[in-house]
Backbone:
């Protein structure tokens, strides 16, 4: 493990994570399809997870990896709820374009 | 005897009235009102014997709030005003038929409870709670049992509620600020604070906003006339007879001793404001068409003078103000009751639609005239004692204050007599005006008797309030 | 004993008032009349007792009942002071009061509210006694305002007529303007000397080493304004002529003999104060003289019999103020007394005439009454001679003394006062000639009913006429009982010289000739030429100005009443609305902000997310930059 990290360098992990995160952000902001938005959020989440793991190795500390398991579990639960909501929205409105979801406006 | 007993009687009375049902409500309320009045007279007796009448109990530890009640002479006088006027007001309403009267009378007692609490509380937060609590019953009384168009009434009453509530919030802020410094809301702890002049100014202004709206002083009075007009007469009596005095009392009890530097610094401005209120209120009253509105503006003029008296920061000013507060409380209740008596017969409050009543009911006319004269401070009525003392204190500050404030005796006579002339005199009215009933007569006679008795012999009240006012003055003058 | 008697003196009329108010209707007319009159007569009897006592002992009686008002630097007690001055005043207040009550029995007999009338009269006497016997300024003030109240009630006695009510209201309010002045004076005195008690005040002023003259003058001036209001001097005199709306006995009692002299009483009472303030004294003298002249000129052309008498009262009061201003308090008091006699007689006489003519007050519709009403005619003639200053009648002595004093102090004032006196003689005899001489000018029906008034009316007239004749005896030039009597009150009198020189006799002669000229002019115009005043519409030129009282009422209306009313409308309609909308405006602003803010919450998730991300970026960059 050490070797791999040494060979690649911690900076590259950070770059990759930031790029992934930004892709996620742009995905959230630009796409109108709720599922894609959802997937973008997952990408952002995983970008952070990646950082966690990288730093965990870098600092020789297992706590970070434990956290990742937690966040993956939470993310899975969130996906389950979120997708259920999306399905229900689709059934009700016939589409899952987020621009149509304006019932919350003041 | 425990001072909280009075509060308990009033509160229990409110619940009992509510449970007694519509038929019995007024009598139960009257009974409890009388009981409270009796209790406060007993309490007065104890106080005069030199007993220390206070009650203190830790209420909330964090933050440090106590259930602290303390009755000195000033509080005693105001408590008596409240508890004596409450049964009179309830008694005066006996001729009326209110729907859902159990809630109505329960609210009256509840309001009386809150106002009595305000006069007794010696813990800042407790005082604030009572202060705000008294607003709730009058809101419902005016909203539900008021008169006139429902939409307009709602508008006026909601304005009143929000306006006074908003003003009071500043007072709360001031209390919280002082709490941070003193670690307690107790009045004596707050007295010990050494606040800088700037701090005092802000505290003074925060209090001022609350009180100026409640009293009301110009230009914060805009809620008054409309609410007085729209509220049922009982509500108007409670408002003008007692609730106005809450503001004035609080000026003496809380505002001046807590921020004496600011009070001294800006004294002239506030005296001027009070006197401006005297002149303005008198002039506006001149052209009012509605009897209750006219009385509202006359109230504005009178409380302006009282407020000016309190801001002189002299013993005479404070004493005169308290005397005038009590006198005005009685006279204004009487006058609003007169308006109600006329309304019961003629279904109108427009002065133009009255007239020619005197020949039909000389007794009522005489009593009305006496109240009018008391209101314009004819010597030998209680109001004269108060007004004279206040004007004297103003003349000590600056003779022009006394002259300008004294215009009330000219303008007051002008609008009151003009109103009396058009309401009562003239060619006999074709509409029949039934003579006053026993209830109506008795109420007015009691009020008139009080006015004349203390007009000729104000010594008991003067002796009651003077020591505590002197104490407050020492507090005001503590930093020099 | 003295205390109890003083209480009887004070409360007898009050008791009469209470009985008449509460049981007047049940008692019936005659009982209520008797009670009303008796109660005042009792006071009169007690007064005589006190008068005899004080004449012997020369000791003032001081009675303190209880503490009334407490002020930080002094106490005001409810107490009475019965000394020479107050007893003198009481004598004619209760004496003339009793006579007028007697008169009213007959005069008001047909009025349905007779008992109310007597109740008010009794109340008036009660307050007047309070005013006179109060031992300090504040007790006096009770009476002061109380008589104002009774005057209000009695002017507006026929309350169905709104014009009368207006007159009553006007009287009350103008009096209150004066009252404010009086109060201010009281404040200053209380501040300066820490007492309002006459006796203590006197010693305090006498003992003070460094008097603040500025404030002392201010106090005196303020008190004088109070006197102006009550005693109908310029500029506060306009209420008195209007006050004639009340029943005639009221005009006689309140608006001629007693209440309007309250101002003179007060100034005489405080003579030790006014003596120290010569500036104010000169103001008083000038105001008095001008009032005397102005009122006399207006009186020249009035056609309402009571209005003539009203202006004559104002004019005579002016003369009294002139005397006060010149420091001759005893002369003013003397004139107050003689004036009370002859003016009460004149008013009651005019009441008798009005009674006979069933309410007619216009002199153009009278005439030739002397045959039908001989007693009224003779008594009024005596009173007119007295007021005109014809020798040997009471008015001659008192008026002459005023002119004398004026001549010694200030010649212009003497001229003004003399002219006013000549005018007085003229308009009084104009009144007499128009009313009692020539042919009757009323309707046939009135002529048919002409009759002399019943004895209850003529008896007071006769008594008053006698008093008007001999009243001058109390203060003959050279040997004045009155001056001697008043010496304890007016210490200056002890050292005053009493000698009559040539100047004095010459002045007397001038005054007498002046009076006779006035009478002669009236005779020439209204008997020889048989002139009758023209109709209202035909009055032209300066007499129109006079007839309309120099338009003073209109001027006051334009300067004070109208602007206040306009201001009131302006305040009510504009300022009130503006203030109210200001408060509503605050609410509206809050609402508006909320409404605008609502638009951001448009429900577009994309936008929310964008804002969210931007916010995140902002926070992150802030954190980086902060480091």
Residues:
């Amino acid at each position: 493990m050490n070797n791999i990290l040494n060979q690649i360098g911690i900076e590259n992990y950070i770059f990759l994570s930031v790029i992934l995160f930004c892709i996620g952000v742009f995905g959230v902001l630009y796409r109108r399809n709720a599922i894609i938005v959802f997937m973008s959020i997952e990408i952002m989440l995983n970008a952070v997870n990646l950082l966690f793991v990288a730093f965990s190795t870098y600092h020789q500390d297992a706590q970070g990896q434990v956290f990742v398991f937690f966040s993956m579990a939470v993310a899975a639960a969130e996906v389950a709820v979120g997708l259920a909501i999306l399905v229900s929205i689709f059934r009700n409105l016939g589409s899952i374009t987020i621009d149509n979801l304006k019932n919350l406006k003041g | 005897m425990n001072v909280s007993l009075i509060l308990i009687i009033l509160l229990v009375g409110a619940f009992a009235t509510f449970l007694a049902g519509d038929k019995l409500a007024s009598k139960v309320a009257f009974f409890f009102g009388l009981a409270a009045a009796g209790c406060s007279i007993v309490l007065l007796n104890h106080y005069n014997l030199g007993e220390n009448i206070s009650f203190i109990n830790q209420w909330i530890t964090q933050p440090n709030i106590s259930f602290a009640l303390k009755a000195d002479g000033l509080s005693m006088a105001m408590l008596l005003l409240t508890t004596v006027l409450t049964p009179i007001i309830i008694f005066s309403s006996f001729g009326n038929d209110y729907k859902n009267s159990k809630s109505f009378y329960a609210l009256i007692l509840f309001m009386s409870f809150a106002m009595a609490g305000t006069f007794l509380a010696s813990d800042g937060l407790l005082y604030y709670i009572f202060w705000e609590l008294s607003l709730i019953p009058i809101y419902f009384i005016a909203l539900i049992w008021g008169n006139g168009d429902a939409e307009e009434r709602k508008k006026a009453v909601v304005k009143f509620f929000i306006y006074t509530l908003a003003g009071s919030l500043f007072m709360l802020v001031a209390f919280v600020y002082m709490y941070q410094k003193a670690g307690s809301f107790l009045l004596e702890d707050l007295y010990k604070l050494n606040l800088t002049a700037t701090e005092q100014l802000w505290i003074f202004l925060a209090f001022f906003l609350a009180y100026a709206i409640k009293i009301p002083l110009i230009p914060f009075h805009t809620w008054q006339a409309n609410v007085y007009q729209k509220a049922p007469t009982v509500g108007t009596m409670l408002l003008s007879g007692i609730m106005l005095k809450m503001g004035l009392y609080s000026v003496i009890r809380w505002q001046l001793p807590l921020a004496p530097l600011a009070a001294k610094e800006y004294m002239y401005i506030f005296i001027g404001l009070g006197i401006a209120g005297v002149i303005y209120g008198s002039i506006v009253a001149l052209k009012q068409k509605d009897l209750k509105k006219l009385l509202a503006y006359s109230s504005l003029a009178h409380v302006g003078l009282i407020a000016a008296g309190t801001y002189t920061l002299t013993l005479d000013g404070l004493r005169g103000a308290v005397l005038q507060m009590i006198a005005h409380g009685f006279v204004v209740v009487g006058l609003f009751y007169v308006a109600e008596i006329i309304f019961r017969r003629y279904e109108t409050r427009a002065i133009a639609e009255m007239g020619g009543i005197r020949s039909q009911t000389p007794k009522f006319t005489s009593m009305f005239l006496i109240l009018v004269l008391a209101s314009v401070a004819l010597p030998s009525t209680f109001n004269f004692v108060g007004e004279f003392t206040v004007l004297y204190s103003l003349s000590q500050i600056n003779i022009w204050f006394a002259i300008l404030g004294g215009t009330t005796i000219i303008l007051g006579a002008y609008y009151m007599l003009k109103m009396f002339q058009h309401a009562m005199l003239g060619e006999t009215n074709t509409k029949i005006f039934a003579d006053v009933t026993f209830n109506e007569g008795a109420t007015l006679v009691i009020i008139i008797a009080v006015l004349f008795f203390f007009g000729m012999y104000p010594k008991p009240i003067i002796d009651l309030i003077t020591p505590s006012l002197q104490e407050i003055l020492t507090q005001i003058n503590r930093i020099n | 004993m003295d205390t109890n008697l003083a209480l009887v003196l004070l409360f007898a009329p009050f008791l009469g008032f209470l009985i008449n108010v509460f049981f007047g209707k049940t008692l019936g007319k005659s009982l209520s009349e008797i009670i009303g009159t008796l109660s005042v007569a009792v006071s009169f009897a007690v007064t005589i007792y006190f008068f005899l006592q004080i004449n012997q002992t020369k000791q003032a009686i001081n009675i303190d009942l209880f503490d009334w008002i407490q002020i930080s630097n002094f106490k005001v007690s409810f107490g009475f002071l019965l000394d020479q001055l107050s007893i003198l005043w009481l004598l004619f207040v209760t004496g003339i009061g009793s006579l007028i009550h007697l008169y009213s029995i007959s005069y008001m007999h047909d009025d349905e509210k007779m008992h109310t009338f007597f109740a008010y009269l009794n109340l008036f006497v009660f307050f007047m006694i309070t005013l006179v016997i109060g031992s300090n300024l504040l007790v006096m003030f009770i009476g002061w305002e109380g008589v104002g109240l009774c005057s209000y009630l009695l002017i507006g006695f026929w309350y169905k007529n709104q014009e009368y009510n207006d007159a009553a209201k006007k009287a009350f309010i103008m009096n209150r303007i004066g009252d404010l002045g009086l109060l201010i004076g009281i404040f200053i005195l209380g501040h300066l000397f820490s007492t309002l008690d006459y006796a203590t005040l006197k010693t305090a002023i006498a003992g003070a080493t460094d008097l603040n003259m500025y404030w002392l003058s201010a106090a005196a001036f303020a008190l004088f304004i109070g006197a102006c209001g009550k005693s109908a001097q310029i500029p506060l005199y306009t209420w008195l002529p209007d006050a004639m709306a009340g029943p005639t006995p009221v005009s006689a009692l309140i608006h001629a003999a007693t209440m309007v002299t309250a101002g003179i009483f007060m100034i005489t009472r405080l003579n030790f104060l006014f003596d120290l303030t010569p500036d104010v004294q000169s103001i008083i003298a000038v105001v008095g003289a001008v009032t005397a002249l102005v009122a006399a000129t207006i009186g020249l052309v009035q056609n309402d019999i009571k209005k003539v008498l009203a202006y004559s009262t104002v004019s005579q009061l002016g003369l009294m103020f002139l005397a006060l201003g010149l420091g001759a308090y005893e002369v003013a008091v003397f004139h107050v007394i003689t004036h009370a006699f002859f003016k009460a007689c004149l008013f009651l006489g005019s009441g008798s005439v009005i009674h006979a003519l069933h309410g007619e007050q216009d002199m153009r519709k009278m005439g030739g009454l002397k045959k039908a009403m001989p007693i009224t005619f003779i008594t009024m003639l005596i009173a007119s001679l007295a007021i005109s200053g014809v020798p040997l009648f009471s008015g001659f002595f008192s008026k002459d003394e005023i002119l004398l004093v004026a001549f010694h102090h200030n010649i212009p004032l003497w001229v003004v006062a003399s002219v006013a006196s000549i005018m007085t003689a003229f308009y009084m005899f104009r009144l007499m000639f128009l009313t009692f001489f020539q042919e009757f000018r009323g309707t046939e029906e009135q002529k048919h009913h002409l009759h002399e008034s019943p004895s209850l009316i003529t008896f007071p007239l006769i008594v008053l006429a006698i008093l008007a004749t001999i009243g001058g005896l109390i203060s003959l030039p050279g040997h004045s009982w009155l001056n001697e009597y008043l010496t304890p009150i007016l210490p200056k009198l002890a050292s005053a010289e009493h000698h009559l020189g040539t100047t004095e006799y010459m002045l007397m002669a001038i005054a007498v000739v002046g009076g006779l000229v006035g009478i002669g002019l009236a005779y020439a115009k209204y008997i020889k030429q048989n002139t009758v005043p023209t109709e209202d519409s035909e009055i032209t030129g300066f007499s129109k100005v006079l007839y309309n009282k120099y338009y003073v009422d209109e001027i006051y209306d334009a300067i004070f009443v109208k602007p206040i009313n306009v201001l009131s409308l302006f305040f009510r309609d504009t300022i009130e609305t503006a203030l109210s909308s200001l408060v509503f405006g605050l609410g509206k602003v809050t609402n508006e902000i909320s409404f605008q803010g609502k638009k951001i919450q448009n429900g577009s998730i994309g936008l929310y997310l964008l804002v969210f991300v931007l916010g995140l970026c902002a926070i992150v960059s802030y954190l980086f930059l902060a480091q």
User: Anything to note?
Assistant: The radius of gyration of chain A is 17 Å.
